Amino acid sequence: MSGEQKAKAKSEQAKGKVKEAAGRMTGNERLEAEGQAEQARGDARAAKEKTKDAFKH
Asked: What does the pLDDT average to over 4-13?
């Protein structure tokens, strides 16, 4: 994985987890859903980069 894209993926995953937890603690379903979506984007970005790496080698 390129370093920049890997960092972006990890950042999105971490921010998503924080948002989801905050939403769950406050009862804010919208914030919780945003967190889950952000985690999913991070997961997709990481998977895309891993696929790219697999084809490079």
From this structure: 91
Distance of CA 19 to the CA centre of its chain: 11
Helical ranges in the chain per DSSP H = 3-26, 29-56
d(CA 40, CA 9): 10
Write out the two tokens for 27.
């009862």
Gap between the Cα atoms of 14 and 35, Å rounded: 9
Distance of CA 29 to the CA centre of its chain: 18
Count the Cβ atoms, other than its own, within 10 Å of residue 42: 20
pLDDT of 15-56, one tens digit each? 999 999 999 999 999 999 999 999 999 999 999 988 988 887
